[in-house]
Amino acid sequence: SGPTSASVLPVPTSTQPAPSPTATEDAEYLIGGALHPSYYSTTGAFNGSGIALASQSFATDLQTGTQGSIVMYFQHHSGEIRWQQLSSSGWIGGSASEVVAIDAKNSTPLSAVAYTTNGTSTWHIFYIDQDNLIKQRSNSNTTNVWVDGPINTANLRANNADQVGMQACWYGNDYGDSDYTHTPLPDSGGDEDYDEDIGMHLWYAVTNSSFEQWGWRDGEQEWRKQALWDRYNGHAGIGCYSWGPGTTTYVMLVNLQNTVEFWWKDTNTNVTGNDTHPINRWTNATQVAINDVHPATSLGYTNYFYAQSASDNMIRGYNISWAAENTTILEGEGNQFTVQGEPGLPGTHLSVTAIPNYSGGNELLVFYQTNGTDISEYTRDFYGGQWARVEIEIPESDD
């Protein structure tokens, strides 16, 4: 419709208990212990954990710094939001010493935004607390202390549901300063102009079928409401792309028919718009859509766009040509693929990224849950090849 301003459960079986009598939602919108108390995990990750990724190194020299490593945020089976970091020797952390928040709701979505400006690297984690309020925790390389972020004062209350869509997204000049080493940006030749306005957008479901969009501009203290997106699946995730060249930002939502829609907005007020390319107005890119996604799919974008299929719970990737009203999914070999791994839990949270590697190439990384206590990482060369799986070791105790 568009916005207006202002235990193991990979596949249900005949022995699976029926949804708990206390469940108030359709089973397709439930995950883990919300389906039945026997599915609450007692080791590893929370069954239905949110997953978020951020680069927090921003080193200019790949060989001497830690650029290419990432930090993963997840919900531990204790309910705490914790983090682990990818080091040269593998994944480390995830213990009670690496806690970001202790008041998250079960199966909260997680979103991470990291950037660097004026030599300072900053990262923000967004989640939903036990009172259904949107919460922000922030940190930087100058303090290394987690503090509450400014969105907390807005008292934004999310939909009271087990699966709730929420996503924060950086917008502006390629994550900040030019010394950030990264994988190739889509549709980028390296010399393009960037929107001078930088900050974050956040979308979150307020009902089963609507989202609010809020925004924060770098240097300001307050978040401001920007739009209401009505008649969209509030249980599914949000995707966004707003850090590339030019002045056009994109958001992807799942409609009530479980089809992913792609919307764009060109903020360049120095040009004159027309009927096919309006300025400063969200517009549906009608040449692109992804049908039959899982009703509670997460969405993710970094170089490729990812969603969970309803038919087999597999995670599929799509190469998008971003061109405002002419945005399309590219055809041809390698432009659409299935992550070669186990099916995800129905409605699993997922998170994706692409990072430089030490051999000078780039890799795609996809994270999701397959059995309810795991966080599984799937990795592939940027341009193709086989997927390799790593099940990240998560501390089993609450310590």
TrEMBL record:
* Region Disordered, annotated ranges: 1-23
Which Gene3D superfamilies does the annotation name? Fucose-specific lectin
- Segments of skewed composition (Low complexity): 12-23
Give the protein's recorded name: Fucose-specific lectin
Species of origin reads: Hortaea werneckii
Organism phylogeny: Eukaryota, Fungi, Dikarya, Ascomycota, Pezizomycotina
